[in-house]
Amino acid sequence: MDGCVHRGRGAADARRDRKLAKLGYRVLRLEAGLVERALPQALKRVREALNP
Asked: I want to staple 3 with a disulfide (CB 3.0 to 4.6 A). Which of 26, 29, 32, 51 is the partner?
């Protein structure tokens, strides 16, 4: 989930994510509030995504 800036952009985001996946990228979406208010938890989620 992204911040409020991305509301209503789900379809466009999904298309972009598919294009990135075809190029070998993985997308991790974090809520803006999580990054702003709980950076350690946000970083934990990034680490977990990198080490499944």
From this structure: 32
**∠ at Cα 43 (40, 45), nearest 5°?**
115
Confidence (pTM): 0.67
DSSP 44: H
Contact 34, 42 (CB under 8 A): yes
For residues 34 and 1, the answer to whether their CB atoms sit within 8 Å is no
Mind listing the pLDDT tens digit for each residue in 1-51? 455 555 667 889 899 999 999 999 999 999 999 999 999 999 999 999 999
Burial grade of 28 (CB within 10 A; 0-12, 13-18, 19 or more): exposed
